[in-house]
Amino acid sequence: MPVLNQLMPENVFHFFEEICQIPHGSGNLDAICRYCVRFAEERGLKVLRDEGDNILIWKEASPGYEDREPVVLQGHLDMVCEKTADSGHDFAKDPLELYVEDGFVKARNTTLGGDDGIAVAMILALLDEKDAVHPPIEAVFTADEETGMGGAKALDLQLLKGRKLINIDSEEEGILTVGCAGGISCHTSFPLDFSSREGEVVKIIISGLTGGHSGSEINRQRANALKLSGRLLYEASRSTQLFLMDAGGGGKENVIASQAEILLMAEHPSALMEAAVKMEALWKEEFMDEEPNLSVQTEKRGMQTANVVSAETTKKIVAYLMAAPDGPVGYNRTLPGLVETSLNHGIMAVREGYLTIDTLVRSSLGSKKAELAERLKILAGLCGASFRADNEYPGWAYKKESSLRELMTRTYREMFGRDPEVLTIHAGLECGLFLDKKKDLDCVSFGPDIWDVHSVKERLSIESTERSYEYLKAVLAGCCREDI
């Protein structure tokens, strides 16, 4: 039964709810692609699904504005799939369970996918509207943005005539984003030398962390469960010898890891238990009220004979987790308070005889991005691990001249009586890849208020969505009035 049909703008939330009924996590986009193609065909709009699972839809201009230059409207199809530990939700087949609370749309026990489902919904609503005033529209829905921007990398921009691109993938109303960081994925792999050993087994569970987006929220210095696990094990190793058995944590490179589980054999399990109690108390003091649900649990599994990693390899893994930098490592020298360079250890897992740590490095400067990746490579080598980097994507440099930015600033001022904030962000946006392919593009990103994206606390402001949609329509009308 529809939950959002009473909300305004009705057509936007109608399409958003339909999108939320279709599984569309990264790598699972066939159903949402078919939905978008069917939407276009039912309305007689030209549509293309390319080999990268990007969807392109063309709509002619409003009568009288056929001679205006097309405007590209762009968002991405995929969402980050995170859920609470006790949730039975299956992102591969289950619809999201939406509800409205305190002026926000939320999903029960899962991420909402407002990033970037609301962009798709807003663009579909515009394509569906009969009375909106607009130039020719080239709608672009990209695939797998959240896992390396694969769709944007594969997109053939020669298919598009427009040189003005409005990206709807920002999460704070009143902000026009005009630049972003580039990124590179780094993978550190430790070979695991298992052998049989008898001893006391203990499981360490770090959970309840706030998590969040590793770009837009990295400045908040939230706790990363993978880093905490390294610190706890280092503290314990000062009093007892440890033998790793299994380890896992996090779920996405671009999400601050909110949980981790470590299975160990310890010569003196009491020392490990004491370290867990000590570190939990210390972290609650260090993070104050910013990690209210932080929890460190220990489970004694008793004496066992099991395959364990050698003490020497365990020490190297712990050393890497302890010594590797995490979070912000450099700030912008011209825009005070803006993170310039950072990294996030997003996933730790045992895979085919290796313990692998997947890390996303970001920077608005290509040289700093490369330097930080090299630092990780050197540290990995010193700790006996192999290192690989891939999925690199460029940043988006601020342009001094932008007619689209000027129009969107002026329109915002006229509608709301104040200037928007114009800034660059530390998170990655697909505009960098588009500009790398088409140098004369003029890009601006905006969006409604979406809080705690990439986490189970994600929520979308209803009133902000209404204002943002009206603002988008006003900008498009402005593109008709002015030759920008």
UniProtKB/TrEMBL annotation:
Which InterPro entries does the annotation name?
A: Peptidase_M20, Peptidase_M20C
Pfam families the record matches: Peptidase_M20
Which superkingdom? Bacteria
Q: Which CDD domains match?
A: M20_pepD (cd03890)
**SUPFAM superfamilies linked:** Zn-dependent exopeptidases (SSF53187)
PANTHER family in UniProt: CYTOSOL NON-SPECIFIC DIPEPTIDASE
Protein name, per record: Aminoacyl-histidine dipeptidase
Give the classification, highest ranks.
Bacteria, Bacillati, Bacillota, Clostridia, Lachnospirales
